[in-house]
Task: structure prediction
Amino acid sequence: MPQKCGARRAKNRELKPVFDISSIGAGTQMIVAFFLLMALRVPVAFALGLSAMYAMWQIGFGFDLAGDLIATGIAKYALLAIPFFILAGTLMGTLGIAERMIRFFRILIGNLPGGMGVVGTVVCLFWGAVSGSGPASVAAIGPMIIKGMQEDGYPRAAAAALVCTGAAFSIVIPPSIGLVIYGVIAETSISALFIAAIIPGLFMGVLMLIILPFIKSSDRAELDKLSPAPPSQGYWHDLGQSFRESFWGLMTPVVILGGIYSGIFTPTEAALVATVYAIAVGAFAYRTLTIRALYDALTEAASSSAVVMLVVAYASLFGWVVTVEDLVGQYSDQLLGLSDNGGVILMVIMLILLIAGMFMDPVTVMFISLPIFLPVVRELGWDPVWFGVLVMVNLAIGLITPPVGINLYVAANITRQPLEHIARAALPFLAISVIGLAIVAAVPAISLFLPEVLK
Result:
């Protein structure tokens, strides 16, 4: 009898395991697997691909389908803008166009209170209209701006923090790679998104200027001894000379955005125009284009583009599983069930994006979250263009938020400063950016004014 009871208990243990993973849907298992792989420091693209293929195996689909899904995911005309905008920004840094623009803005604004801090903010926003990538902007113009701000009395860590923040909003200022990807996912007009992002991007830049007086400066007398001011022939003479030297570089956003808004070319075609324009300026206007410079720019742009496109490719697998498992319906229904108040739901979405941005890059966050959030946006009748701008501002903040904060890592690398020093110096900028996000969310007219006027 005791033997039978023991056998029965053993059988019950077999029938009722403590935890049965098969009771969890394949889609949820995929999300858990993704975050587990991220915690193990697996690169984002491969974490997306491996977790998605595991879910496909659980569902019962063959891996031969993966190739077709990847090809379909990246075979979108609008995505061609990504590598060409990255190449255009890289060329402008390599060919000396960025350096000339910084010199012009330094002379133009240098006499104002805050000096190079104002210059750094303006250049970062201006450069956002060229590169469209936060980390690329930090790498391209960071060293020059940080050096100038140090000479103007700013602590090195504070200068790096300002560059990190200003460059982060490169993904808001059009033409933005992030807005291109949002437009593709949301099936929304990319041109409308570009127009809508102009005022919010400039608004976030103005908020950054408010922080400058509160950044403790070094002893200017000592700095003047170490870094004497360059000889000057008068403000207007220096300004005119620097304007002539930087004219073709300053015309870049005019050519790109003017062509898009006038309907001469699409945002995707604008990326190619920007690349050709940068090569032409380097070759004929500044004569800085060499085979070596072109090779370096192509190599760097190819590397950066490959990282982004690999995420896009594997995200298509992830998105397919999300659709097949109806995770969109499940999670969006839960989100809508949180409250009858749209403001509360918006706050929850913004909080989720802020937290996600602390750990993942903007491209990954969009591909994972937008399929869930966009049905909620449509259900509540929100304008998808306004929501797209909100998403970009939110994810820009993530670029300067530890523990991942990609811009912080790039700045730490180029300045040889400890990451924690730069992160600490970035806290005031982080705080004012969150306030700016709240204002843009509360006042949709900030984003929708220009699209309405230019209809």
